[in-house]
Amino acid sequence: MNARQLEVFRAIMRDGSVTGAANSLAVSQPAVSKVLHHLESQLNYHLFERIGGRLVPTMEAHLLYEDADRVFREIESLKHLAHSIGEHKIGLLRIGASPPITYSVLAQALVQFRASHPTVKVHLHALPKKEITEQLILGEIDLAVTLSTIQAPTVRTEILAPIPVMVVLREDDPLAALERIGPPDLAGRELISYGNHADVAPALNAAFAQHGMVREVSIQIGSSIGAVPLVSGGLGIGLVDGLVRWSNFAGLVARPFAPTVNMNVAISTNAARPMSRFYEPFLKSIRALL
């Protein structure tokens, strides 16, 4: 039983006659009769008998109808889904994002994106850059938003905005009185910051070297969010990105680091994979916030 035969059988059962089915399907009566005859030939039994001038469903037709009606409605639902996907009403966007991005601009970017694409499902993977890179290459995500560029043969990266490094400290710290904080101010203080493997590390190290100092990191973190409980607990001063809204954390303040050292918010896709049709709308949303 193919989809057309299913549609004709369901219409005859619903409308009670070949004429009624032909009218509801907007086809000729002979066309409906032909499809019905072919279906009964394939099944090798009758679905209807003509009694007293009326077309009466057989027991076999009643047995088939409930499942046939369900299958037909599922096919119609699938057609609607396929049509909606084609009109960009429904879809899926898989995003990989570094934790600082996830906890700062991403939520508002998704609010703006979903305002114009309310039926698009979003799968968010908040992961370190290394894992994000692996997922992007494997095609498990459509795009990546990170705090540094992804270097890989098939990856295309666009820098969206520079983000200055900030000094994060407790509000009762004496250094909180300064407008800007530089390496000399941090002499003898415990630093909570990125390790030398981080992309921003050379620029930070150079800033300290200009003052004859070495950037000694007491507690190394992979993500700036990890500095929150450490700084709050009095374990040191954070030297991290300024993307996170540090003012949202009670008892903490952030001051610009001098000299200015920037990290880059970057968005990346895999050139070896099809580009998501939702990439451009999402890019517009997140770019407006940076």
Automatic annotation (TrEMBL):
| Gene Ontology MF terms | DNA-binding transcription factor activity; sequence-specific DNA binding
Spell out the coiled coil positions from the record.
Answer: none
- GO BP term, example: positive regulation of gene expression
Domain HTH lysR-type: start-end pairs:
1-58
Keywords attached to this entry: DNA-binding, Transcription, Transcription regulation
Top-level taxonomic group: Bacteria
Q: Which Pfam families match?
A: HTH_1 (PF00126), LysR_substrate (PF03466)
| Gene3D superfamilies the record matches | Periplasmic binding protein-like II (3.40.190.10), Winged helix-like DNA-binding domain superfamily/Winged helix DNA-binding domain (1.10.10.10)
Task: Give the family per the record.
Answer: Belongs to the LysR transcriptional regulatory family.
What protein does this entry describe?
A: DNA-binding transcriptional regulator, LysR family
